[in-house]
Design goal:
The chain is of the alpha+beta class and 345 residues long. The protein has 12 helices and 11 strands. The chain has an 8-stranded mixed beta sheet, with helices on both faces. Strands 1-3-2 form a 3-stranded antiparallel beta sheet. A hairpin with a 3-residue loop joins strand 8 and strand 9. The relative contact order is 0.10.
Length: 345
């Protein structure tokens, strides 16, 4: 209809306009709606939420909510994967330049220090972190990979966290879903109260700490005995954007993980199945999900038993057949052949 083009509906399927919400909801409840009902909301056709009824072109039928959710989650998963690859490339580039001994020009003010500084040794890293903590006045953003946090790790940074809380600084932390099972983290969050908000994802990027969106710390080697202190505004802003996108996709620690919708398959096993389908080895999958290789293999064994697979090759086929070869997504319940198992989740 003239005058009601897409420019008046600048949104995607993840956030419908009020009129589109009403018409789509009605179509889902009733199974179809007259075409004239959608004339004021062309966004529903443009977003493929409604499409013509092949039996009667004067009516429109809805795309199922499950299919829409799958489409949205697939897009978000691709976006996060691309961000993670870009961060990995950036870190590799920083290490290369640091190895060449590149002299980075100071920022506008000498007091601000260099834009990129290599911190060699745990003592220098701790000193720089303490300095950034003391200067922080507003916000701390962190990404903590590696699964369940050891209580020693949490205790080591507790004095900084308490100092920040005392000054009214807000903290947001991202962990893997596995971290939910660590009592030390739960105790830490209870101690910090509403000063800290935590969310979890199947996978996160390597460790990242951002203070006041002006200085960031990332590892500079695999054993984390070296770190990079980043103060270049463009680099820090890029890392903030990566964090915010991951945060938007993450699940609050206080909320349960979504049901997979597939009988006998846990959320973690669904994530493992997707990574197996991508061709990753057990050790890589374990590292990305923050679990031990032994635990990973126990889940793979359970997947094989639940899906009735006698070999890894057959397991890959079964994973594709039941739709586990993509990112975790909401889906209608699926039944699969299975035997009784005593293997623990």
């Amino acid at each position: 209809m003239a005058g009601h083009g897409a420019e008046e509906h600048p949104h995607g399927a993840d956030r419908l306009c009020e009129a589109g919400d009403r018409v789509y909801s009605r179509a889902v409840r009733r199974g179809r709606v007259p075409r004239r009902d959608a004339e004021q909301v062309p966004c529903l056709l443009e977003l493929a939420l409604l499409h013509p009824d092949p039996d009667d072109m004067d009516w429109l039928v809805p795309t199922s909510p499950q299919e829409v959710m799958t489409r949205l989650l697939r897009g978000m998963y691709d976006e996060v994967s691309a961000s993670q690859r870009r961060v990995g490339s950036a870190v590799a580039a920083f290490e290369w330049y640091a190895g060449l001994g590149l002299k980075v020009q100071p920022a506008a003010s000498a007091a601000e220090g260099p834009a990129i500084r290599v911190l060699d040794g745990l003592a220098r890293i701790q000193a720089a972190m303490d300095e950034a903590t003391q200067a922080c006045t507003t916000e701390v953003l962190t990404v903590q990979p590696g699964g369940i946090r050891r209580e020693a790790e949490l205790s080591e940074g507790l004095h900084r966290a308490l100092a920040l809380r005392g000054r009214g600084v807000r903290m947001r932390d991202l962990y893997t879903h596995v971290a939910r099972h660590g009592q030390g983290l739960l105790t830490y969050l209870e101690l910090m109260g509403d000063a800290v908000e935590a969310r979890t994802l199947d996978e996160v990027i390597d460790r990242l700490i951002l203070f006041d969106r002006t200085v960031a710390f990332i590892p500079a080697n695999t054993d984390r005995t070296m770190a990079l202190e980043l103060r270049h505004p463009a680099i820090v802003e890029y890392l903030v954007t990566v964090f915010e996108r991951l945060w938007r996709l993450a699940i609050p620690l206080t909320a349960p993980l979504p049901d997979t919708g597939i009988e006998g398959i846990s959320h973690r096993e669904q994530s493992i199945a997707a990574l197996l389908a991508e061709g990753h080895q057990d050790a890589v999958i374990a590292e990305r999900l923050g679990i031990s290789v032994r635990t990973c293999r126990a889940h793979i064994a359970r997947l094989s038993e639940t899906l009735g697979a006698a070999s890894r090759t057959q397991l890959g086929v079964r994973i594709a057949q039941v739709g586990l070869d993509g990112p975790p997504r909401a889906a209608a319940p699926v039944s699969v052949p299975r035997r009784e198992s005593r293997t623990a989740r």
